[in-house]
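Got a spare moment? Tell me how you read both lines of this record:
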Amino acid sequence: MIPKLNIVPFVSVDHMMSLVLAKGVERFTVELAGYIEEDFRRWDMFDKTPRVASHSAEGVIELMPTSDGTHYGFKYVNGHPKNTREGRQTVTAFGVLSDVGNGYPVLLSEMTILTALRTAAMSALAARYLAPKGSRAMAIIGNGAQCEFQALAFKALLGIESVRLFDIDPEATKKAMTNLAGSGLTLEPCTSAEAAVQGVDIITTVTADKQNATILTDNMIGSGVHINAVGGDCPGKTELHRDILLRAGIFVEFEPQTRIEGEIQQLPAEHSVQELWKVIRGEAPGRADSHQITLFDSVGFAVEDFSALRYVRDSLTDTAFSTDLDLLADPDEPRDLFGMLLRHQKVAAAAP
């Protein structure tokens, strides 16, 4: 049977949750990281452009497009820190994957949950190349919507055993402790960022305030630590003191975008950074030695979302985790779109 090209698989929030739970969060994250790694190894095949952003005083709305020449994908995503005060998510998203050959979409998916999973998978994948060997302890500063995904990704991909948690809102830390109970991780709530980073190998910062902030100061960072800077991601929003950046080996996804949105917006344009795909492909070194401070200045890039959509589409085979969506007009005669409208009118008029 020839598939109807106007029918597009749609993965709803319920479907995404069912798919994730059917696989298990850790397995899902590991497999997703594999897709991202595979696409980073073929980095030169992708269209690459900084995301198209519309900034306001309240937040940002962005489109993140890319193509590998066979498929085209984009994500619509917002970032509005004030939303939590109104009972809304800070970040929401959906995405589309299309066939370049005919321009028809082949997948429409929620990406709020998927973005959290791909961000965590990207963080842990980067750490696998940059963090100290044998890392077992990490700190997560900012215990909001991303926290648990980050913790489980680092457990699954790096073997992290203990997590120290801090948030300026104790209820956020309490929430994370509850959600991660039974995960196999040793959890320790902390009363300050300074306490949280004591004795850890990896520090993840994932805060959401739309302002320049100093979540980590230079004196808090000892030699050999890997920093995973996830929060920020817009002009005027940073989390790390500039002096930390001057001491660290800095790794980014796509330098032109990170210069605008990442921690390195604090540095002059000529300050040296390394794109992570080169490390993954073995074309550039990662961590230099056990004493180096490494920083993954993570802002998220369209290729990662493309990988996530590709992974979800492949995962839908022989499952019930999608709905057929009548999304595209498909007249019997491609040139007779108006006639299709008239025929529908006749059908509607004849209906009882």
